[in-house]
Write a structure and sequence with these properties.
The chain is built from four helices and four strands. The protein is α+β, with helices and mostly antiparallel strands. The model has no long low-confidence stretch (mean pLDDT 86).
């Protein structure tokens, strides 16, 4: 059983013709349940910042306008993923099996990526190549 999980959230965009990643947070989760909670929390955090409530007091009246229907709706994708019990179960199974999990969505300018993987799986990957190298 995998006991600890590394979780990362990154936004990727293009600057001066190069793909640039901006870390939005990392967490070393001591349990599978906390890893899943943190991924959902970060997904909702991104969604809330991309799609704030227009009636929030810190926005001047009419400062927010809807985007065109052709623009990919990243906040809706992230919120839908958080609410999908089947997806959450699948993610839990993959993490428990020691696999890397990647959830990604994008709009016209930015890709948002949530990653998680087992600390134990990472340790095992680091030691395996050392075991098969010839000594001579």
């Amino acid at each position: 059983m995998h006991d600890e999980f590394l979780c990362h959230v990154t936004a990727y965009g293009t600057c001066a013709g190069q793909r640039i990643g901006v870390p939005l947070g990392s967490y070393r989760a001591p349990t599978l349940a906390l890893a899943l909670w943190w991924l959902r929390e970060r997904a909702n955090w991104i969604a809330d910042r991309l799609d704030p409530q227009p009636e929030a007091e810190h926005f001047p009246p009419s400062s927010l306008v809807p985007v065109a229907a052709t623009v990919p709706d990243v906040p809706a994708v992230l919120r839908s993923w958080c609410a999908d019990d089947a997806q959450q179960e699948l993610i839990a199974e993959q993490l428990a099996a020691g696999r890397l999990v990647r959830i990604a969505t994008n709009d016209d300018t930015t890709e948002y990526e949530l990653l998680a993987e087992s600390v134990d799986a990472l340790r095992m990957q680091r030691t395996i190549p050392g075991l098969v190298l010839p000594v001579g």
